[in-house]
Amino acid sequence: MQLHPILSALMRNKTGPLLVAVQVALSLAILANALHIVQVRQAVASRSSGIEHETDVFSLQIRHLDHRDHQAQLNEQRRETAALRAVSGVQSVSYTTQMPLSRSGNYSGLSLDRKQVTSSVSATTYYSPDSLIHTWGLQLHEGRDFQPGEVPEIDTNTSQDYPHSVIITRQLGAKLWPDSGSYLGKTVYYGTGASAKELRVVGVVARLQTPGAQITEQADFSILLPARLTGEDLSTYTLRTEPGQLDRVMKEAETALRNSSATPVITRLQSVSEMRRDRYRADQALAWMLVTVSVLLLLITASGIVGMASLWVTQRRKQIGVRRALGARRSDILRYFVTENLLITSAGVVAGVLLALALNQLLVSQLELPRLPAGYLLAGAGLLWALGVAAVYGPAWRAASISPATATRST
Amino acid sequence: MVVLSRKLAEKLYGDSDPVGQRLRINGQQYQITGVLDTWNVVPRFHRIIGTPDGAFGDEDELYLPFATSVRHETQRNGNSSCSGDIAPGYQAYLDSECTWIQFWFELRSARERGALQDYLNSYATEQRKLGRMQRQAPNKLYDVREWLDYMKVVGNDNKLSAWLAFGFLVLCLVNTIGLLLAKFSVRAAEVGIRRALGASRREIFQQFLIETTVIGLAGGLLGLLLAFGALALIAMQSKALTVVAHMDWQMLLLTFALSVLAAVVAGLLPTWRACQTTPALQLKSQ
Fold first, then answer.
1. How large is the ipTM?
2. What is the mean pLDDT of chain A?
3. Which residue from A1, A192, A282, B151 lies 20 to 30 Å from A150 (Cα-Cα)?
4. Residues of A whose CB is below 8 A from B52
């Protein structure tokens, strides 16, 4: 097959082919970048929080409307924990000060030396008198869980007391002591200066995300501290249920907690799945929009190719008839149109790759997005080539079906 | 003392007048001194920090004087940034150097901003002499718009969506040009006859321009229906989105005008091409 006649025919009438090529280029540029962004967001949203079988875990917040003293609050926390443990289907209950992925929590500076002026790293703190490792199914990388003797009772309104053991995440350990293989027994200071609290690492968990679950490495900078704290109106419990019983247990746990209090309380329940959904809602929404727009983009480009190809077939009806009468086979006609389309699409793809790189450069510089890997360009180019051939096949088939007798008769 | 929002007053007291009534909040008695008329400002610039939905959270429900809230040791919600360790207790927190209060000033005119800035600067200088604020951070004032920018209320994702929308519009324009070109070029014979019967180029131009405008109008109407549908869908996603996902008149007119304009612009090249038809050639080839 000779390309020359096709090329010279294209050069005679440039507008149509040019429009199709521009469409292909724009589609490719947007498509490659959009799919890349979707992929990046999906990767962020599917990170593990460290909690095993998240769908069986929820949190229950309870707010008491009157102020109670330290001892009353201690008793109350014990009574509430016992009431929750008695609910059937509950596997484990822990008091906690915050939840991973919940978007609300406390972060504090940690330092390696009292002389430091600024802290080494900012980490989030989970306080619990119970075993969060057990309730959340955190994977212990090295060391051990807290022991009952390590859990002080602290009234945050009057006391400067603090626990002396800490469990950190492996990622936090790697950040604080990059050259160490093991972080057990190391000392870290909570805060800076002379009043910083000295903590000794007794355990390292493989992973535990912060409440913010940031997109940076900070997402895994968490510490666990053993303490029973009082002085807040708000208590948070986290529960693990028997597999598949979450909905029922959530209702019954709330009732049990309300019944255990003599005065009215405000409760708020949320499953970790809901927290995850809320945390990544914006990312999921953006991903959906990008996917929708990408599909529309391809549909519109395909419709443009079909439209232009149909026009060319109609315009060249007579010429096709003549070629067929002179001995060209159907496959020759078909091949002519498919080749013509491939030439146009290829021009569009080349321009599209350049445009995609330019667009990515803009996104990187303006919106702090990551660089586009070459794979997306290749995949996008392949997709548009396939789309081009598929779209032109219908009109080309009609061209090939033109009977030489009727097409040449009309003049 | 407490001032309720209209919504909360209606929820708690129905039609009766709540002013003068007493209300128990967190174990403390408060006297209701007033009810604020609906103040539904979006984004909620005054409390971007502190609530999960931030600038697009629920409406305000009640207002307490700051001194009252401090006297009752009300627990704070939001961000609190402390550089050092603080002693336990509420008073120690008040005495600490933690940053936790956001101030809003109402000025009579923008010209007074300089004076306020000077006042803050001299206050900071004075405090530095007393040993506070050693970080030497500059004192910055933000008006509402600057504050929204600073807090990135319109995030990068929103900008990305807007760019995507315009990229998509350009693609659709190119597509429309192509399709209109195809549509008009098969009607060369019709143009030839009209021209031969005495129609001027100008009249042909008008005919095709009206045709593209009609297409634009139809597309615009269909687009608006789709837009309302999509907005309803978005609003169902979350409470925060319900606050922003609605169409106002300006947006409605703007999008509609844009779609018609886009169609007309896309139709210009095909229309001009159609006008170039030579009547003699067209008639001869019939």
1. 0.80
2. 90
3. A192
4. 103-104, 278
Question: b/e per residue, A298-310, with b = 16+ CB within 10 A?
Answer: bebbbebbbbbbb
CA of A181, closest CA in chain B: separation in Å?
Answer: 31
d(CA B94, CA B100): 10
Query: pLDDT tens digits for B122-176?
Result: 999 999 898 887 777 888 999 999 999 888 888 888 888 888 889 999 999 999 9
Percent of chain A with pLDDT over 70: 99
Show the low-confidence residues of chain A (pLDDT under 70).
1, 410-411
Contact B96, B33 (CB under 8 A): no
Q: Is A212 at the interface with chain B, CB within 8 A?
A: no
- Lookup result for tokens 């401090």: B70
All residues of chain B having their beta carbon less than 8 Å from the beta carbon of residue A22 are 174
Q: At what angle do helices A15-45 and A281-315 cross, to 10 degrees?
A: 160
Question: Which long-range contacts does A43-46 make (Cβ < 8 Å, 24+ apart)?
Answer: A44/A215, A44/A280, A44/A283, A45/A276, A45/A280, A45/A283, A45/A284
| Entry pTM | 0.81
Task: Write the DSSP symbol of residue B47.
Answer: G
CB-CB under 8 Å, A301 with B85:
no
Which of A20, A23, A159, A199 to probe by mutation at the B interface, max B CB count within 10 Å?
A23
**Can you give the residue ranges of every domain in chain B?**
2-102, 107-153, 156-284
pLDDT tens figures, A330-346: 888 888 889 999 999 99
Q: What is the three-class DSSP state of A269?
A: strand
Nearest residue in B to A194, CA atom? B85
Closest residue in A to B235 (Cα–Cα):
A285
A372's tokens: 């586009």
Q: Break chain A into its structural domains and give their ranges.
A: 4-46+281-409, 66-263
Q: Is B27 in contact with A193 (Cβ distance < 8 A)?
A: no
Is B237:B148 a contact under the CB 8 Å cutoff? no
Interface test with A, best of B96, B157, B171 (most A CBs within 10 A): B171
**Residue A360 Cα distances to A29, A36, A37, A44, B156, angstroms:** 9, 10, 10, 19, 14
The C-alpha of A171 sits at a distance from chain B's nearest C-alpha, in angstroms, of 24
Q: Give me the residues of B, 78-117, that contact A with CB < 8 A.
A: 84-85, 87-90
Residue-wise DSSP of B64-78? --HHHHHHTTPPP-S
* Contact at CB, B174 and A289, closer than 8 angstroms: no
CB contact under 8 Å between A104 and B160, yes or no, is: no
Contact B242, B235 (CB under 8 A): yes
Residue A112's nearest CA partner among A168, A163, A150 is: A168
Instruction: Look at the block and give the residue holding tokens 């807040």.
Output: A232
Gap between the terminal Cα atoms of chain A: 29
Q: Which of A192, A290, A359 sits opposite B84 (nearest CB)?
A: A192
Neighbours of A311 (CB within 10 A): 19
Is A156 in contact with B88 (Cβ distance < 8 A)? yes
